[in-house]
Design a protein that fits this description.
This protein has 103 residues and is α+β, with helices and mostly antiparallel strands. The chain is built from three helices and five strands. Strands 1-5-4-3-2 form a five-stranded antiparallel beta sheet.
């Protein structure tokens, strides 16, 4: 994703949430405290921040949020594609919201 910051939100199952927490704990991420989050980290190599809440809500923010989702969240946690490959800038948020709503 070129330039700008974006926020992507996903509804994760308990199993997906556990998988994300494990990825954040084992990877090259910087743990951080976020109120009400069960797991949260800065992902500096992806230029993104990730927070997982007890409700299963996963929030990915930053200029690299789409890259993080495509390279980490989709293959390692969700095990499915949720973002359309050729979405225009600004459309990623709508695509993610639609995918989360359909889940």
């Amino acid at each position: 994703m070129a330039g700008g910051s974006s926020t992507l939100v996903f509804a994760l199952s308990r199993e997906e949430g556990d998988a994300l927490a494990a990825v954040l704990a084992a990877g090259n991420y910087v743990p951080k405290r976020v109120p009400y989050a069960v797991a949260a980290a800065d992902a500096p190599s992806w230029k993104a921040n990730v927070a997982l809440y007890s409700s299963g809500k996963c929030v990915v923010q930053g200029s690299g949020s789409r890259d993080f989702v495509e390279n980490v969240l989709e293959p390692l946690v969700l095990r499915r594609v949720v973002l359309a490959p050729a979405q225009a800038a600004g459309g990623a948020e709508k695509g993610a919201a639609a995918a989360a709503a359909a889940a």
